[in-house]
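dude i think i finally got it to work??
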Amino acid sequence: MSFLSTPEDLPTSHGGLGWVSAGFTLFAFAAPSAVQSAPYFIGYSGLLGGTLFVIANTLAAVAGSWMLLQVKLQYPSAHSFGELGFKVFGRAGQIVGNLIQIGNFVIFLPCALLFTAEALEGIWKPWPAPFTQSNGAPCWDYYILIIALVCYATTQVRTLSNTAIFSAISVFSVLVIATTQLVALGLYDVSDKKDALWFGNPDPEHASVLFTRGASIAVFGYVPSFLTAELTSCMENPRDMTKSLWLSGALNLIMMLGVGVPVVLTWGYNMGYVAPLTGQFAGKGTANVDAWDAGNLTTALLNTFVLIGNFVSYMLDSVPLGRFCQRCWAPHFKDTWKCGDILRYAGFTLPTFLIGFLLSFFFPSLDFLVNCLTFLTTPWVTRIYQPALYWKVFHAGDPSLLDSRSKVLDAMSGSMKLGVSLVAVMGFVGVALSAIAAIGLLVVDGTGDWQIGCEGWYILKPSES
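look at this
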């Protein structure tokens, strides 16, 4: 049987989510982390080089998500990559779809926990022992313990249609983070500034590693495809998702360029991996920006809203993951808010929470984990798998045009074939860049700073320099 001959009827309404709320949700998934890193990416990619890459990356992500949407509209009963993969490619497509999407959700959980832990540590300094160790470095494990249960509780939101208000809060948090960085430009001085080039950066020794690390931020920071199918199932008018995608893409461009370019022009290209770390690593090749010194109002304000935004990011990641587990293990779950059902749903989501918690607790490097997450899953979900689905369904024509009188379809146009190819190429470029960043991070920085445990109960102790 041909998949092209069996498009499903599209219901007139799936839910009550509007396209603006859906656009905010798509944007908010990883934006609270990405907005802090925009100056790093623009700096080490070059002012013009970074700008062009952000535009190309955003357009490819929007186009890939639009392709996914068209396949979703053909099969509205499918709610995830695995279900869409099964509709289009059969069992093999289901396995691959679940592997890259669910795998990303699982690996992103420890990243979100560590992002929130970093933000919590930056709000109030100095922390007393044992939070701050004798060498002045924080012990992340204690911060993880503080915020872990709060993150776990966010899974009880259960459906993405219930996250609209939280996504709006996340977008507001991103606005505050961006505004704080821009306002700080006029209030604080910088030392050890290095002027940026139009393309690349002046660091000849580690230029390729720094560029690819920055580029992987852009790939990681805007990932609308992860939630496109799920959100479309919750929308009042599923076809309005196209407007949601363009809205999220516009917000991403405004965020990355509106923050990254002014900061780099004013403070130089040698920014920290995330904004608050710029002050911590001053003297190690990174500019010394007074705005991010410990105890400053700007530092506390930025970290407070990074914390809020990353709580929402954890929620947006854990909600579809928790629902996937519930559908697999208890497909007839009543989904009420009675005490028993709350406890049952907590049980369904507990295994994935524990995996994320243990990874955040025992994996010694957040930067390396993020880069591995990116090249193993992110480009595959956002720019490679969708063109494959779209090509399979539409290369011979639009199956929705079939009727009882005609079985003839017009083949896909040449321009559309080119668009599908370009999106896939951008996906493989993203895989290569983020893989080089992960490997380069190990080569350049090594593992000397990796730490598991804290003073008094080290499992892996950082080397003393």
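The first helix runs from residue 19 to 28.
im so relieved honestly
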